Amino acid sequence: MGRQSISFTEPNDNWLKSQVGNNEYATKSELVNDLVRQARGQQIKVDWIAAKLEKAEKGGFTNQNKAEILAEFKAEING
């Protein structure tokens, strides 16, 4: 496991401490790792949507605009 030293602004550090203090997480490192995992998961969704939009635009088989295509894919992802 990689070890890093990072600095937080005071409000962010206070929030991290409060999450650990509320027993949501055992350590700030555990919390930061969870936040990074969540961000990575969101990026996968964003990349998937971008690929679908690009494919749809290049395919030329739709009368929908970008906003309509995006709304359709978001609805598909969110169930």
Alpha-beta content class? mainly alpha
Helix content: over 70%
Q: Shape, please?
A: elongated
| Largest sheet entry | none
Q: Let me know the average pLDDT.
A: 89
| Parts with pLDDT < 50 across at least 5 consecutive residues | none
Structural key phrases:
3 helices; 79 residues; 0% strand; mainly alpha
Description:
- The protein has 79 residues and is mainly α.
- It has one domain.
- The chain is built from three helices and no strands.
- The protein has helices at 10-21, 28-59, 66-78.
- The chain is elongated.
Q: What's the layout of helices and strands?
A:
Elements: H1 10-21, H2 28-59, H3 66-78
Helix pairs in contact: 2-3
Short description:
This protein is mostly helical and 79 residues long.
